[in-house]
Amino acid sequence: MRAYRSNASSPVRVEYGIELVEGLALFPETTSAASDLGTLNDTLAAQHENRRALRVPVLRTRAALRFAEYGVERVIRSALRAAEIEDGGRRGRICAGVFPKGSTPILKPVGKRQVKPLKDLVERLEKSKVAGIDAYRAAWLPKLKDALASFEAAVAKHLAALSAHDDAFKAELALRDAHHDAVDRIMGQVRAAFPRDRALQDVIFPPVDEVDAATTESEDEGAQDPLPTQPLPPVDA
Questions:
Q1: Average pLDDT of the chain?
Q2: pTM for this structure?
């Protein structure tokens, strides 16, 4: 009797479970175990498909966030150039008041970490008392506010999609553990039901392909830090 490895993916467990249920169902001594495992197997399969479906909004919102970040950075760079022009073609009082350290501290962060420096930029422009800033503020404050609002919305949608995927993956992991424990218990039940028939014990349990049974951590992870360039788990995880 052989079971899959403890780090096996959900599809490996489900396929193993389907074959095991078929074998258990052939004998009166193990029909109850077959029914229980069949139910658990179906639940794990459904949760795996649910988690895979939740990858779609993660991918879509990640793409949207990537373009939102591109757009907001264009606005920031344009706002800095406009401030330099307002200062007479160089970095003067307006630039010092609105972009005290240039654009790098605002452009360098990625994903959700860019929200705070962008908010700080908008607040500096709103509250600045630099002489001659009124015309610049009237032109650029609405543009920066719109960019901030769009970017915050994109970040929020991506975070929500990641959170839903992460919750689904945690539920899937719990079902994987339950499935593994159930198989382990069934091994004991089969040994007790057929104590001197090693050949029958072995044929009830399906063979395990060591190559397919194992999945590395990088191949089967849940959601990670919500950055536009963060890779997702592979499709076959």
A1: 89
A2: 0.80
